Amino acid sequence: MLRIAVPNKGMLAETANEMLQEAGYRGRGDSRELVAIDPINDVEFFYLRPRDIATYVGSGVLDAGITGRDFLLNTESAAKEVRALDFGDSTFRFAGPAGEFTDVNQLQGKRVATSYTGLLGSWFARAGIEAELVPLEGAVESAIRLGVADAVADVVSTGGTLRKAGLEVFGPVILESTAVLISTPEKEHAARRVLGRLDGVLVARRYAIMDYDIESSKLDAALAITPGFQSPTISPLRDSDWVAVRSMVPQNELNQVMDRLQDAGAKAIIVTALQAVRM
Ligand SMILES: Nc1ncnc2c1ncn2[C@@H]1O[C@H](COP(=O)(O)OP(=O)(O)OP(=O)(O)O)[C@@H](O)[C@H]1O
Ligand SMILES: O=P(O)(O)OC[C@H]1O[C@H](OP(=O)(O)OP(=O)(O)O)[C@H](O)[C@@H]1O
Ligand SMILES: [Mg+2]
């Protein structure tokens, strides 16, 4: 039975669970359940803190897991990123009192609060900066005001929390994070089934099906607009001067593509959502 770690709470939990359900897996009955068995799919799900998931997967007791790239890199483990999952995006940044820091080298000898000491420690080592790490569990933005740190390194999404604390970001982006599927080289073969299903969900979320009719003489111009994933399907129509085209189109380009197809002479342009995909 495949054993998979899933975030039990926090920013990643809801979407991770939605994705697994879209991939045809049975979710847990209630949000306090720690383990759920899906006998039809021969999978056992373990609901764990996302921060801990790389530890479990890296140890080899679980075959795969969903967590944040930042949590994976914060943990010393044998687990590796297998696929980015298109949600849970964030950036990891340095911040300090407005106007105080402009360059990361100014952190030399300073105290930096973070709940990502592993990630930050290795970043400092690579950058040759000797700073003192102040480990905190959360709400690190308050550490400066309360006098335990000179700067912080934390997840920034809208920047609202920083602004309210009178802080501003400085220095390079430490990490662009996103939710990821992780596994170890030993378990990657076992995890290929869940990977295939999640890939299907990603494609179904990223693409839609577009159908349209076009005069054969204009087909090449239209196909340049909708090259498709592998190759568009072209079917004859009763009117032999016309053909029907079916192609995959990225969701975020649908309307621009329809505008351009109309300009190219396409008629009856129809977009259909993808329910499930296996590439
Ligand atoms: N706006 C956001 N704030 C915090 N984390 C975010 C945000 N957007 C995406 N993320 C990602 O979600 C994950 C953090 O989720 P979670 O809520 O579990 O974190 P946490 O509160 O730091 O964890 P914990 O409470 O276990 O210490 C990280 O991978 C982070 O990069
Ligand atoms: O840029 P923003 O959109 O304001 O979001 C970033 C904030 O959200 C997260 O905190 P979280 O809610 O997880 O609380 P925590 O610090 O207690 O973990 C993160 O640690 C930042 O504090
Ligand atoms: Mg939190």
TrEMBL record:
GO CC, sorted alphabetically, is: cytoplasm
Query: Which cellular compartments is it found in?
Result: Cytoplasm
According to its UniProt entry, the protein's GO biological process terms are:
L-histidine biosynthetic process
Q: Which pathway, metabolic or otherwise, does it act in?
A: Amino-acid biosynthesis; L-histidine biosynthesis; L-histidine from 5-phospho-alpha-D-ribose 1-diphosphate: step 1/9
* PANTHER family, per the entry: ATP PHOSPHORIBOSYLTRANSFERASE, ATP PHOSPHORIBOSYLTRANSFERASE ATP-PRTASE
What this protein catalyses is: 1-(5-phospho-beta-D-ribosyl)-ATP + diphosphate = 5-phospho-alpha-D-ribose 1-diphosphate + ATP
Database matches in InterPro entries: ATP-PRT_HisG_long, ATP_PRibTrfase_cat, ATP_PRibTrfase_CS, ATP_PRibTrfase_HisG, HisG_C, N-reg_PII-like_a/b, N-reg_PII/ATP_PRibTrfase_C
What the protein does? Answer: Catalyzes the condensation of ATP and 5-phosphoribose 1-diphosphate to form N'-(5'-phosphoribosyl)-ATP (PR-ATP). Has a crucial role in the pathway because the rate of histidine biosynthesis seems to be controlled primarily by regulation of HisG enzymatic activity.
Gene (UniProt): hisG
The protein's required cofactors: Mg(2+)
A GO term, aspect molecular function? ATP binding
Activity regulation here? Feedback inhibited by histidine.
Q: What is its EC number?
A: 2.4.2.17
Question: What is the protein's name according to its record?
Answer: ATP phosphoribosyltransferase
Q: Which UniProt keywords apply?
A: Amino-acid biosynthesis, ATP-binding, Cytoplasm, Glycosyltransferase, Histidine biosynthesis, Magnesium, Metal-binding, Nucleotide-binding, Transferase
Q: Which family does it belong to?
A: Belongs to the ATP phosphoribosyltransferase family. Long subfamily.
**Superkingdom of source:** Bacteria
- Residue span, ATP phosphoribosyltransferase catalytic domain: 49-189
Q: Which residues form the Histidine biosynthesis HisG C-terminal domain?
A: 204-275
Pfam families named among the record's database cross-references:
HisG, HisG_C
UniProt keyword Chaperone, yes or no: no
